Structures are given as structure tokens and as C-alpha cells.
Amino acid sequence: MIWICDSSGVELRHLEYFVAVAEEQNFTRAAARLHIVQSAVSAAVKALERELNARLLDRNSKRVQLTDAGQALLPRARITLDAARDAADAVAQVRGGLRGTLRLGTLTSIRLMDLPGLLGEFHRHHPEVQVQISVAPTGSQGLLTGLAERRLDLAFVSHTGPCPAGVTLLPLASSTMDLVVPPDHPLAGRDTVSIAELAQLRFIDCPVGYGNRTIADRAFTAAGVPRHVTIEITDIATSAAFVRAGLGVTLLPRFLADTAHGLRVIEVTDADLHWPLYLASPSDRPVSAAARALTELLRQGASA
């Protein structure tokens, strides 16, 4: 039992359910995430509202929104749940094993590393840790936001520029993005191309916020070359299929070159199209023992 004030006792379970509903903005999705029935989530949130004598959520048929009281409670609820997790970690370590849940954010395509193999090794060492994997619809920026809002413990991101405040970035791997064009494209016979020659092309790319989009936009801006993105997709690995259908050209990391079968892959020689992969972790708060264990496993792999 966690005491919020002298007169109110609030269960950790109620806080957990409230946070899930607030993040999912939907009772059904929150129940699925928590692996319980929706009625139990609704009952817990109502009990929490009674304990605090405040309405925390505005409910309608489409989505759930936080009231002012809910917005005030959410960050404190996350801090309380983190503290409870840390206490459980301490007890588990004394008992000789890690337990709990590790919330891991990832990109749609990170073939530079074997994520299933990595998590398989982690599971062999820590079988009692449940790993929850999620993909942000807004790419690396969304993953970093999830980390800042305590919805994620760790995240694989592609980031350029200064390290975000409150975040530590562990370099894991890198690639270079090349131009991919149809075989009948005027540039198809070239091995290399200048970025200035790409000014009038129709590009297929991810939405703003994705790491590869940020890298490409910065390269074109630095060169003073306009770029036209006519189709936006959320899975970079499918961009070659769009090129193959004659819908435009794309910039693709070399680790996805196998998806460009039947297309021409051309190096852009005078632009910084370096695509890095990092493990992002919070630097403004302690991380869980499970997060530390996975970070160490990745650190060992990166230095091997």
C-alpha cells in the first residue's frame, strides 16, 4: 500500500491501471496491455478516483483524456511505480535472480543487429524477466519521448545531433544510406551521384521524427538542395517495394540492400548520410536491474 496523503490509501495496482489507461487513451487497449478484463481496469480507476476524491479521466466513445487532476497525477504515479519496481529489484537480487518487466522500444527495421538472438540470450540468463517490445508510430523521436515519459525503460533509436537531455546513448552499429532507383531511371547507370542531382526527384521516406528521415533532411538542408517527399511510410524496409512500383526513389541504409532486389543502388558521394544505431537509456533517473543487465549485454557485444 502506498500512502499518497494522510487520509488516502492508494494501491499500486490502481496506479498501474491508471497509467496504462492514460498512455493508451483507451480502456480496451489498456486491458489488453495488462492482460486483464476491461471491467477490472474500469473498476480500479473508479476506485482510485474515489480514494483521491477527484475525476482523473474524461471518458467518451472514441478515446480517454486526462483531466487536470489526471495530468497532475500521471508523472507522480510513474515515479511511484518506478520506486516500487526498484524495491522489488533489490529483493529479487538478494534472492538471486532478476524479475519484473522490461519495456523495450525498437525501430521497425534494425537488421544491423540480431534482436531475437539478443533477447534469447538475455532470456537464458534472466528467465523471470518479461520483455515488452513496442514500436513508436513516430519513429526514434517517439521512442525518446516514451523514454522521457517513463513509458519505456530502454529504446533502440537512430539519432543525429546532440544527445537529448536526460538520455544516455550507447553506440551499437552504423550504416550508410544509398540512393535506390528503378532500373529504367535516368540515374540507373551510375555508380555514384551528387546530392545536387537529386533535387527534382520524388522521394519515398518515413514521416518526420524517424531517424532516417532526419538524416536525409539534414543532408539536403546542409547542401542547400530542395527535396520533395511525395509518399511517407512508417516501415523503411518496404520503401524498396514502392520504388519497384514506380512511385519514386528512396534513400535506404545498406543493411536493407537485400530488399532492393531488381533495383539500382547508387552511392551519394558528397553528403553525410551516416545512419547510426544507439541504445537509449534515461540518465535522469535510476534504471531497473533488468535494464542494466540488457545494457551490459549490449555493451559487451558492442566492444567485442
Mean pLDDT: 87
Structural class: alpha/beta
Oligomer: single chain
> What Rg, in angstroms, do the CA atoms define?
23 Å
Helix proportion range: 25-40%
Question: What is the structure about, briefly put?
Answer:
This protein has 304 residues and is an alpha/beta fold. The chain has nine helices and 14 strands.
Give a verbal description of the structure:
By secondary structure, the protein is α/β, with parallel strands linked by helices. The chain is 39% helix and 25% strand. Strand 10, helix 7 and strand 11 form a beta-alpha-beta unit. Helix 1 crosses helix 2 and helix 1 crosses helix 3.
Give the SSE layout:
Elements: E1 2-5, E2 8-10, H1 12-24, H2 27-34, H3 38-52, E3 57-59, E4 64-66, H4 68-95, E5 100-106, H5 115-125, E6 129-135, H6 139-148, E7 154-157, E8 167-181, E9 192-193, E10 202-205, H7 211-223, E11 228-232, H8 239-244, E12 249-253, E13 264-268, E14 274-282, H9 289-303
Parallel strand pairs: 5-6, 5-7, 9-13, 10-11, 10-12
Antiparallel strand pairs: 1-2, 3-4, 7-14, 8-12, 8-13, 8-14
Helix pairs in contact: 1-2, 1-3, 1-4, 2-3
